[in-house]
Amino acid sequence: MYPTQQPDFQQLADQIKTWGMALGFQQIGISDTDLNDAEHHLQLWLAQDRQGEMQYMSAHGLKRSRPALLQPGTRSIISARMDYLPENPVTSHTVLDDPTAAFVSRYALGRDYHKLLRNRLQKLADKIAAEIGPYGYRAFVDSAPILEKAIAEKAGLGWIGKHSNLINRRAGSWFFLGEIYTDLALPVDTATINHCGQCLACLDICPTQAIVAPYQVDARRCVSYLTIELHGSIPEELRPLLGNRIYGCDDCQLICPWNRFAKLSAEADFQPRHKLDNSTLITLFKWTESEFLSKTEGSAIRRIGHQRWLRNIAVALGNGNPSAASKIALQEKLHHEAELVREHADWALKQLISRAAL
């Protein structure tokens, strides 16, 4: 589908960026569809089985790296980023340093970002249609097989750092990404130069050493994978390394020197809900399934379900202080209906008893 009249594409690209900023995005960039380098990197990663249980990473053939296979007719991609950091990183460090506190990755403290970004992208797409008439497009926010970071890098929104996250020189890495695949032949932006230099801070800080080499992450060791993507039992040798991280991990972002330029989000939906930024492990461990479903409504956290929520918190309690309250909380879960919960609670309780005996 094409506009009824050929527009001035350079002028349109400028307008798209202006409209995007007005809609709450911090930056808009445009790229072509050539992702050959990223495709090679992805295929190598898959060949090494570093995706773990994330079979969806290989389930769509080459659609992830060849946009026109996913959305026929795609000629250019509009990439957008939106800041999400809800609090000063000092607060995150405070939580991580407190073994009784529960650390939730900062992107998940508020409402699920998918709908918010998707709605904004749709408004942007509608503005384009109002300007030039009908055209072919499709908006995405983690909703299809897409190499969003590689696309954003080509669109000039930042560079992929050694931890595999996108870094912007003026905004750090605390932002979400979204895309509009379009059949418009828009002028593309210049890719950003990599500014990681000799820094290895993210590799050194990773709790589980999941960043096995610069730009190479083994998901099977990553805390985010273990607490979110993994459905079964967390490998025992990795449990002590999770600390009090119960949903995701931000260590590589917290240590990144470029995040000194990060700005707090102005979006109300990204602000913490239900005190998830400042709750104790025991408080969250006591949530019933109905409480979990109620308090995670509209949250990205809900996708892991109550059993994995309890699994993660049990491990965190086992890594904490051997207090009477922690032991009682874990003992109560030894009779939980789910074997997954019982097994992790039993492991955690044994850790506390062993530590108390020293």
Helix and strand topology:
Layout: H1 9-22, E1 27-31, H2 36-47, H3 67-70, E2 76-83, H4 89-96, E3 103-104, H5 113-132, E4 137-140, H6 148-154, E5 159-160, E6 166-167, E7 175-182, H7 201-205, E8 211-213, E9 216-217, H8 223-229, E10 245-247, H9 251-255, H10 281-285, H11 289-295, H12 305-318, H13 324-332, H14 339-356
Parallel strand pairs: 3-10
Antiparallel strand pairs: 1-2, 2-7, 4-7, 5-6, 8-9
Helix pairs in contact: 1-5, 12-14, 13-14
Structure overview:
With 358 residues, the chain is an alpha+beta fold. It has 2 domains: 1-87 and 106-216 and 261-272, no CATH class; 217-260 and 273-356, no CATH class. The protein contains 14 helices and 10 strands. The strands form 4 sheets. Strands 1-2-7-4 form a 4-stranded antiparallel β-sheet, with helices on both faces. Strands 3-10 form a two-stranded parallel sheet. Strand 8 (211-213) and strand 9 (216-217) form a beta hairpin. The radius of gyration is 22 Å and the shape is elongated. The termini are far apart.
